[in-house]
Specification:
The protein is an alpha/beta fold. The chain has three domains: 264 residues, 2-enoyl-CoA Hydratase, Chain A, domain 1, CATH 3.90.226; 32 residues; 35 residues. It contains 15 helices and 16 strands. Strands 2, 3, 4, 5, 7, 8, 9, 11 and 12 form a nine-stranded mixed beta sheet that branches. A three-stranded antiparallel beta sheet has the order 6-1-10. It has a two-stranded antiparallel sheet with strand order 13-14. The longest helix has 40 residues. The N terminus and C terminus are likely disordered.
Length: 439
């Protein structure tokens, strides 16, 4: 406990003023040689069934059916586990990693009652929560400030109870309790000596002892706060500039400032995880369908684009063109543009040629007259045919062939007596016509 307390009191912190006093009794006990008997709240978790039933709070218990994990963070934020109780952010990430692999856990609710904590490690776990593949929802019914809010804002959705105390206190601070006076009263002599080769060592701390806070602010606090602000804008694009200045906000005001999504209860937070998990399953189903559809069409698309290599594709971004394919496509477009220009030039020249146009007009007239003649013949033959000229001609040819094959279609050959000029013979194909007529 001693080591952690000393480092806590002399490092960069993201703490709400109302919360840092939690740790001071431990420091006083250490200085007085008293063993601390009151631990800080430990990190606990439970599993809530998607049917609304609590299924356990034991640290080693895993859910047997679909459930939401609820992680209670009711203590200051530390990077590493504390002997006095709380788990560090490194341990929390290990727990989340285990839950990520368990199919029965559909998401996580973070229940906060913390005014903040250690700056080290907080950006790391906040980014981890922001990219967590399962639904995450943050909730507070108490206070949620500074480092705790850093983590709170990273969830996919956030709730604050209407009776919560406050939320916000965004920013960085440096907390240091100088115990030199107490040690000197005990007879200690404190001496600091630095090598000539280390003129910048502990520069900020040395300046602080002389009452100069600027090196500490410029080198540590401002860069830390800048990263804090940038991450919050990434997590919550609607957060106001006013909220980033470090003030505290009531539940109602936190909604207006973009700090929180909605006022609600812990049950609302649990229900939101179930809703997001259900929506995610539906989207995955649609995504698989879209993948199958695009797999069938990509080959055609690649052919249309004139690409030799297949389109690249990721689940998050879909299909896309790489740099080489973009160059190929650009060159192809240039070729097509040049070809189009050449064809347009030839067309314009053809249209401008009077002789060609006259020939085309005459040809069109001939075709029109021919089609009119064929239409008349079709009508005479009792045919009602529509379509192209070729189709009409084919129908007429079929009709002619049909008529040529009928009885009596062969014409009578009249024989002429060449020996009796101008006289027609009465004998046709061996038959005496006059004989028939005289009967």
């Amino acid at each position: 406990m001693k080591k952690n307390t000393y480092s806590l009191l002399s490092s960069n912190w993201m703490f709400a003023e109302e919360s840092k006093s939690i740790l001071l009794p431990y420091l006083i006990n250490i200085l007085n040689g008293i063993e601390n008997t009151i631990p800080l709240a430990s990190t606990t978790h439970s599993f809530i069934s998607d049917k609304g039933l609590a299924i356990g709070t034991n640290e080693n218990l895993s859910p047997k059916n679909k459930s939401v994990a609820v992680l209670n963070i009711h203590h200051p934020i530390f990077k590493y586990d504390q002997v006095c109780g709380p788990s560090g952010t490194q341990t929390m990430m290990a727990m989340l990693e285990q839950w990520k692999a368990e199919e029965n856990i559909i998401g996580v609710v973070f229940d906060y009652n913390s005014g903040g904590g250690q700056g080290s490690g907080t950006p790391e776990i906040a980014d981890y929560i922001f990219n967590y593949p399962k639904p995450t929802v943050s909730y507070t019914n108490d206070i949620c400030g500074s480092a705790a809010y850093y983590m709170f804002a990273a969830s996919k959705y956030t709730f604050i109870n209407k009776y919560a105390d406050f939320i916000g206190c965004i920013g960085s601070m440096f907390l240091k309790v100088n115990t030199d006076g107490i040690l000197e009263q005990q007879g200690a002599s404190i001496i600091e000596v630095y090598s000539d080769l280390s003129p910048e060592k502990n520069k900020q701390s040395r300046a602080l002892k002389e009452g100069d806070t600027k090196p500490l602010i410029d080198k540590i606090l401002n860069p830390s706060a800048s990263v804090f602000h940038a991450d919050l804008k990434r997590f919550r694009p609607t957060i106001s500039e006013n909220a980033l200045k470090g003030d505290l906000f009531s539940p109602e005001d936190s909604i207006q400032e973009g700090l929180v999504d909605k006022i609600g209860t812990l049950q609302d937070a649990i229900n939101k995880v179930i809703e997001l998990a259900s929506s995610s399953q539906q989207n995955n189903s649609k995504s698989n369908t879209n993948k199958n559809m695009s797999a069938k069409t990509l080959l055609v698309l690649q052919a249309v684009l004139g690409l030799d290599a297949p389109l690249a594709s990721t689940e998050e971004n879909g299909s896309y063109l790489n740099a080489e394919q973009l160059d190929t496509l650009e060159n192809r477009l240039v070729e097509l543009d040049a070809s189009n220009t050449d064809l347009q030039t030839k067309l314009d020249a053809a249209l401008a040629n009077t002789e060609v146009n006259d020939q085309l007009t005459a040809s069109q007239g001939t075709v029109t007259a021919l089609e009119a003649s064929i239409n008349e013949m079709l009508t005479s033959a009792g045919l009602d045919v529509t379509g192209t000229l070729t189709e009409k001609t084919a129908a007429l040819s079929t009709k002619v062939a049909e008529m040529g094959g009928q009885d009596g279609a062969k014409p009578t050959n009249v024989k002429v007596d060449v020996n009796n000029s101008g006289t027609t013979s009465n004998v046709v194909d061996g038959i005496d016509i006059s004989a028939a007529m005289n009967n």
